[in-house]
Amino acid sequence: MATVEDILLPDIGDFAEVEVIEILVAPGDQISPEQSLLTLESEKATIEIPAPKGGLVKTLKIKVGDRVSAGDPILVLEQTARTSVPADSATRPAPSAPQEANVHTGSDAVSRSGRPETPAHPAATADITSVVLPDIGDFTDIPVIEVLVAHGDRVEIDQSLLTIESDKATMEIPSPSAGIVEEVAVKVGDTLSQGDLILTLRAAMPAAPAQPAAMTAEEGEEPAGPPEPPARARAPGEAEHRPAPVLPRPEDMAAIARGRKAHASPAIRRFARELGVDLLLVKGSGAKGRVLKEDIQGFVKQSLAQGTTTPAEATLPFALAAAPAVDFSKFGAIEITELPRIKKLSGRHLHRCWLTVPHVTQFDEADITALEAFRKEEQARLVASDLKLTLLPFLLKAVATALERMPILKSSLTPDGESLILKRFTHIGVAVDTAQGLVVPVVRDVDKKGLQTLARELAELSAKARAGKLLPADMQGGCFSISSLGGIGGTAFTPIVNAPEVAILGISRAAFKPIWNGQAFEPRRMLPLALSYDHRVVDGADGARFITLIGELLSDIRRLLL
Predict the structure, then answer these.
(1) Which member of 104, 349, 359, 535 is catalytic?
(2) DSSP H/E element including 547
């Protein structure tokens, strides 16, 4: 026989009117005991509310954005006879009756007879107060993930002392009183339960005389140890209970997070923090965009594979604050268009390369008069084959030969910057201008291919790039890059090293110039070269030798045979 029951918000401490930021179940869902139902968040804590029992969700009585307190109905649950179990205490509102006797309160413990016993922690003196972990609900052995104060610090009432985190909640524990931290009794990694000592506070100024508690002479009771006045008089024989913990006031709840983009449980947030992942950058695949553990693992793998910005790079010592936003519409009409995806990706990569690689650029010119005459002769011979022989295949062969003679220019630094990775292959990336942005497909084994083969592969890669059909494998594995702007114009520029490569060659437009041959000036076709390199790997002498060698190879292509 099925039974229908209202599930109420359990006791979550002295929180009231806490905002619902996420609902994890829907009508018709079959849930099990301890399954998370919803997520609440205040300024001090993010709490997941578990199901006290299993059953079928009939109706939801709350929605995202609602504010709830202990005892408010959450949902209607239907149970069959075989799943029905006695109602758990978590479904009932917070009890208002005093706690049983002989409970550690951080001040005095009262025995069954009503007489004070020896306190669990060192007794508080007139100016020393022991601060213990308050009532935080049905949690025990919760790890401390952050200690926010140290010996000698001055703290105020409600100032956060430490942060604790379980699989269901992350909470900051506030100070119940003001004073100077005398001794911190916990450290990161310790586990705490209700009543455990956190620290001792020394009054900042002489404490006022403690107000005596109401007692009876017959019982012979003495004043309570801590200098805090009791909330009310205690009747003879009545068990003393600890005052409610000082937690955020309802008016402090105004700071509850709104418009959050990342929804995740405390355990997932802790996992992301351990890996240094910003949850705002992770796209959640769970219900309503909830971030799961698999999402974080996938994000890390993608970051490592694509070289996207990592938290370590985001916190480099020279990282700059974002530029202030400017409202250009007040100066005239504007139009906002989205940046192409390729430019977004390459822009972040180039920015990181520019910031992390110490660039040096060496400029030179190569006399390509003879090379250009030979290229035109070969192009005329290849007309029937529809193969276009440009200057670029000659550049590839010259660069490949120079790299074989000076392999340090095609090496890479290890991530720790302590060793060099020397490559026994010669794959060269060639920058291609497309409508979506700049891409760099890689021509493989350039040193083993002839000019016609290189010309054919370049034509195929360029066509794929402009059609947007390049695969990730087509743009990986390069050990050097060439960026040619000769077809567009310009006399010189500074190319950015495409890390983890250590060098890149920039080519500008060739032009005829009068060159002195020892007897007279004669017109020679000169090609501007710009070599940018990582100065951590390539010093100035090697950079100058390399660009000079390329110039010599281009000036007399017969040298490629030597």
Answers:
(1) 535
(2) helix 540-555
